[in-house]
């Protein structure tokens, strides 16, 4: 089973690496990081680069596609007509699952793949996803047909475990969960706008345009 | 504040990228991925490479060091006397925090940095950590003085949020938790040996030597 994880400039590393760490442990999985060009792709912080081992054009029949999100780019080239959008439209005809993490759902939506569907994105970008004709949901993971979307960044882990269960069965997914010791104990109850202190939610919403560059 | 995240061949990607995704969001943070040589470092699955932006020798006074774990290597070179072990001993004299994720604590222990201290590692490698004179703990995150160790793989997220709170205060850590939407909802209660089905724990323990190459 071929799994393509898409990389592009300003990608959020954990959006990509969370699902990778889960899905690459499926015995049937053949995970490939793909991008417009092979080689290093710089993440949003500027302090990390991930390597794309294949060009998009080399992986034309993946069974699973995962599109991570991005932040802080002055130009959202990946939302415009072009190589990535063309590739997504083509490979989506073949996929068993088309998935995203965080603002990655906006990339799928820009390709028209989520019109009329339920999906989720990073909580700061919900309006932006809705603008593409998507029924936005306030859930951590949303499954609508073969489209599986996750909320921001760390939600890719929960999404990928759901996908691992769909692909390999519950026991396989539980084995992977144990292998990565995913028994979360966040030190604070602040992981969503509903639970974080109001002052923090307000402050982060106020700088949303800066964080997501025009999101909302 | 300079934060060095160490990379070496066969590293587990999420061990490194989880803490990166949290710590790089600290406004005071200057995160650098370091390795013996600059350039691509292939992870344990073989399906992903992360880029080291600096050689160890270029970052000699980090305030925080994070050592991720590894799996499945035929040669655990990083446990032997050599460049990485020498570097760890030298920079540890300067650090405010020396941290690890998963089997990364065994790298610290091999350098003698955890003798007589409490620490944790990946659940399958506890005996191996204990063999270095470490008091192993059955906790997700252990803080003993300036040494902060996390259990396997995904535990690096919880560890890094603890560290973010120590460095930047609780509000800052909560802001980061909200930014990465860390409100985990694992689909199964199988993230530790205490909660996973016994058959899965038994099976994984049986192949432990294969997974960790002689661990235990």
Question: What does this protein look like?
Answer:
- The structure is a homodimer of 216-residue chains.
- With 216 residues, the first copy, chain A, is an alpha/beta fold.
- Chain A is 33% helix and 19% strand.
- The first copy, chain A, contains eight helices and eleven strands.
- The first copy, chain A, has helices at 13-23, 83-92, 104-110, 126-130, 155-168, 170-179, 198-206, 208-212, and strands spanning 2-6, 30-35, 39-42, 49-52, 54-55, 64-67, 97-101, 118-119, 135-136, 141-144, 147-150.
- A seven-stranded mixed β-sheet of chain A has the order 5-2-1-6-7-11-10, with helices on both faces. The first copy, chain A, has a two-stranded antiparallel sheet with strand order 3-4. A two-stranded parallel ribbon of chain A has the order 8-9.
- In chain A, helix 1 links the parallel strand 1 (2-6) and strand 2.
- The longest helix of chain A is centred in the C-terminal third of the chain and has 14 residues, at 155-168.
- The N and C termini of chain A lie far apart (36 Å).
- The model of chain A has no long low-confidence stretch (mean pLDDT 94).
């Amino acid at each position: 089973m071929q799994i393509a994880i898409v990389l592009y400039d300003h990608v959020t590393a954990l959006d990509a690496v969370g699902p990778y760490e889960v899905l690459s442990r499926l015995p049937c999985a053949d995970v490939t990081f793909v991008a417009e060009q092979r080689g290093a792709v710089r993440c949003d912080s500027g302090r990390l680069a991930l390597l794309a081992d294949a060009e998009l054009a080399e992986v034309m029949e993946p069974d699973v596609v995962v599109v991570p999100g991005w932040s802080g780019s002055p130009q959202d080239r990946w939302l415009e007509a072009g190589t990535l959008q063309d590739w997504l439209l083509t490979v989506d005809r073949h996929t068993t699952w088309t998935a995203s993490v965080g603002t990655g759902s906006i990339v799928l939506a820009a390709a028209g793949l989520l019109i009329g569907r339920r999906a989720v994105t990073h909580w700061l970008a919900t309006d932006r996803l809705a603008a593409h004709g998507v029924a936005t949901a306030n859930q951590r993971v949303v499954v609508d047909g073969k489209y599986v979307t996750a909320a921001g960044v760390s939600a890719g882990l929960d999404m990928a475990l759901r996908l691992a269960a769909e692909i390999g069965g519950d026991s396989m997914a539980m084995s992977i969960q144990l292998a990565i010791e995913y028994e979360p104990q966040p030190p604070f109850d602040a992981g969503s706008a509903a639970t974080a202190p109001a002052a923090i939610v307000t402050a982060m919403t106020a700088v949303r345009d800066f964080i997501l560059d025009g999101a909302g």
